[in-house]
């Protein structure tokens, strides 16, 4: 819980949407020039890094204020206005949430295009359905987590960080670059290696 003026709390959502809007203009074209896989991985990596810093700052400011063990109160206020330390915490939160929002649209778009180009045509509709189902499952998972595991949002963030890092490591180490992107860029040597990796993974002899 953040205890301060509603204005400061509302700005947390505002800076996220501002970052989302700017990111849509600034970075979406990067996946056509730098590749699907690097952009999908790098923009996704911003989220666990940002959440990790938010969790670390939460515990740091709790220890500074002697609030350990008192729930999820991250920021205290005096006279309706944040104290200097609380304002510093808020400013850092604004920056981190802005950065996460900045990469959100690029991350979603790059990951979707990347996955579509790796799948056969008949499976692409299933991918779209799965993404919507996954969005719903995240909300269900969060509800069950807060009900049965912990009501501390820091703990939830930690689980999200672990899951995202594990998924990113798998994609980076195992999943190849999009063959369609390599073909469009006329990177034929890399394309051959990519198709060989895909064929080997699917049990198709070279």
Features:
two-stranded antiparallel ribbon; elongated; 206 residues; 8 helices; mainly alpha
What is the element layout, followed by pairings?
Blueprint: H1 6-26, H2 30-33, H3 36-65, E1 77-78, E2 81-82, H4 84-118, H5 121-149, H6 153-174, H7 179-184, H8 188-201
Antiparallel strand pairs: 1-2
Helix pairs in contact: 1-4, 3-4, 3-6
Please describe what this structure looks like:
The chain has a two-stranded antiparallel ribbon with strand order 1-2. The N and C termini lie far apart (57 Å). It has 8 helices and 2 strands; from the N terminus they run αααββααααα. The longest helix is centred in the middle third of the chain and has 35 residues, at 84-118. The chain is elongated and about 60 Å long. It is mainly α and 206 residues long. The chain has helices at residues 6-26, 30-33, 36-65, 84-118, 121-149, 153-174, 179-184, 188-201, and strands at residues 77-78, 81-82. β1 (77-78) and β2 (81-82) form a beta hairpin. α1 packs parallel to α4 and α3 (36-65) runs antiparallel to α4 (84-118). The protein has one domain. Mean pLDDT is 80; it is low at 67-82.
